[in-house]
Amino acid sequence: MKFEQYAEQVVSHLPCSKWEKQDLKDELLDHLNSMKVELIEEGYGEHEAVSQTIQRFGPIGQIRRQLSESLPLLDKYMRKWFMLLFYLYVSIASYLLLLSPDRWRRRAFSVEWKQRMIEYGVPQYTHLFQNAKPFQTLSDYIFHYDNYSFGTIMYNLVGNIAVFVPLGFFLPLLFVSFQNMHRVFFLTLGASLVIEMLQFLFALGSIDVDDLLLNGLGGLVGYGLFRVGTSMMDRYRRKIQSDDDLTATPS
User: Fold this and answer.
1) How many angstroms separate the Cα of 148 from the Cα of each of 20, 127, 196, 220?
2) Of 245, 160, 142, whose CA–CA distance to 211 is shortest?
3) Could you list the residue range(s) of the whole structural domain that residue 180 is in?
4) Which helix (H) or strand (E) holds 198?
5) How far apart are CA 192 and CA 219, in angstroms?
6) pLDDT (0 to 100) of residue 248
7) Which of these three, 48, 71, 94, is where a domain ends?
8) What is the pTM of this model?
9) Per the UniProt record, which residue ranges are transmembrane (predicted)?
């Protein structure tokens, strides 16, 4: 068996990108050729040195299993792509929550409403659209759903959950320190609170504690998706190991 064939079989089924496989293959070939040179210097012939090198390195399955166990969840190439997606998500979420034309139309309405309430001498109604009581908005959607359109309910319930699902997924995927459910939840809650405060300060929306709860739930859903993904990856790696146990030692 030639080094190229041996190295290709080792990396072919590793759970990583094709670019990482190529890097691992090149590194493995370097080690193989270095050992072959040492054996030739010891007096072995070319063919025998190749055979001895492969034999000393070990069975294909064993090397592949060791490499598989040492691989991170994301190799350096895949990490770049996921980091790019994370930045793209942050940009889109920031636009939707703070910079979209719809937000600024709401701002115009909110500013006009406050001015009118002050002119009418009822400044207490300038905060009519704020809710600091947990589950009040949610219960209102449930028990008085006939007062709202289906689109409004879906936008406020599903939308507030969905917008933070990617955050709960990307955080533990890209940062090891966030592979903890509590950290993801509290950071999601913190990010949601910052956005709510900015919306309030710039009159871009209303403060609703139920939005914070739904955003936090979205972060937990994203974290759950991350855990499902890692479980599937672990299962695939165990499958590689079980398949490699059946691989015969190369001659």
Assistant:
1) 52, 21, 22, 27
2) 160
3) 76-235
4) helix 181-201
5) 10
6) 45
7) 71
8) 0.80
9) 81-99, 153-177, 184-206, 212-229
